# Entry
Amino acid sequence: MSGNDGISDDSLESLPHGAQIAWGLVKPSTRGPKGELSVDKIVEAAIGIADREGLSAVSMNRVASSLGFTTMSLYRYIKSKDDLLLLMMEAACDLPIPEEPEGAGWRDRLKAYVGLCIEVMRKHGWFTDIPIQGVPITPNNLKLVDWPLRVLRDLPLTDYEKMSTVLLLSGYSRFYGVLMRDMDRAMSAGADPDSFSGEKYGAALRLLMTPERYPDLYPLVERGVYTEDDGNKDEAQDDFSFGLDRILDGIEALLARRSSGEK
Amino acid sequence: MSGNDGISDDSLESLPHGAQIAWGLVKPSTRGPKGELSVDKIVEAAIGIADREGLSAVSMNRVASSLGFTTMSLYRYIKSKDDLLLLMMEAACDLPIPEEPEGAGWRDRLKAYVGLCIEVMRKHGWFTDIPIQGVPITPNNLKLVDWPLRVLRDLPLTDYEKMSTVLLLSGYSRFYGVLMRDMDRAMSAGADPDSFSGEKYGAALRLLMTPERYPDLYPLVERGVYTEDDGNKDEAQDDFSFGLDRILDGIEALLARRSSGEK
DNA sequence: CTATACTGTATACACCATATACAATTGTTG
DNA sequence: CAACAATTGTATATGGTGTATACAGTATAG
# Structure
């Protein structure tokens, strides 16, 4: 564990060790051999493996040996695998938050926010495989909360409403990231040797679903809307815009009501 | 494996074994000893453990021995743990879908839908811990897609838009379920012996966050909005309504635009 | 120089999902 | 009825996981 934690306040100790590292609270010590490894190298290696082979390929053993070290060496830098996962997310959130084009309206700026979140998940398919443990508590992650709040700053919303809005948007991003991940996986599974079609279960569902039991879903499945036979990613892109536009419309409607004095 | 799968079509074989069970495609065989165990008992036991001790406590060994059998006996009924998880979700989705009060408007009916989804997750804290593998393919789960589609039936939306809307709403439910789960866990962690306060990281964050780096988040944290010091669940309930109301407002705005001929 | 604190390693443990082989049990078929 | 075949529950074994612990080597502080 590189160095005595240079922590003054007790409450800082309560943070997960990974978060302490991310905040730079763990200062390196002078004594002893200087480590050949480092938290950064470990996290980088882990992300590389996850990018290439998925999160399930990330084991302490795998990460360590990819760096030419033994499994247990990692524990000199990181307290647990959970901490490693936390740091992987934090690293993936190290984004260049764009300077605000002050001319742009809040709608486009929020769209840019969601777009960037989704891009993170597209780049790192493993991102949504890491279960959320709670509210963001690491620096880069918190920047991704601060940013949309900045967009909302001058809108007539209460603190809680602003927070809820950010939550709604980031939740939507994550949700959409999960969708994209699933589609990607279904597609690469479809590219597997003996798989004949892009759609996996569409045919089976068409056999099983009856119009009596599923009166309203049945027609959509019949028309291939549900299973996306075409493997048409553009449609998915439309889905993305559709949902986000609804959310933004909803916010806009509230603002309109507010400024017209109603409610 | 209870019985020769009585499956006619090949495409049905491609379904995960858990889904085949859920659809009743696996018929019991006559030969051999009749099993003392059953898929239902196994799933019920697994759910019981997950309800009481969380999903991580659900291991094949744990489930089996809670029923008085050996680990491997489960594999006579279920092909893999993934199948068990699938069946757990499917069982949790076995809900009484309310008869439609035809008088109610689509807004309230969609609200009821989201409310029921959320209730499932409140009842089963483990629900959101099971990673989504793709689109729903089991009977009860599909009923939870059919239902909201029924609400949307007569609204002027395309197939894809309806599907997107349902996706948006169920995504929101799930997202909110995750939030609730996190809050519950933070709260029960706060109830732990040496933990002094209900909020876990609020104090630490107040120390770490500077107004320079987080100009717009900082004030909210300062006012306790971010970490919900009060442990006030009512506020969260408001968050819930707030986000959902925005989504519904957004749909309503689209419908209004549609029926006014615009766009 | 000595004590101390750190590094990387080797070993060990408990747990996990699951493949396989086997004895016991039952229904079907000759 | 007897022989067969299918199915059940079990015991055992394999290769994986995260991580606790003890240890030898090394660099710095006093």
Remarks:
- Confidence is low (pLDDT under 50) at residues 1-7, 193-198 of chain B.
- Chain B touches chain A through 75 residues (CB under 8 Å).
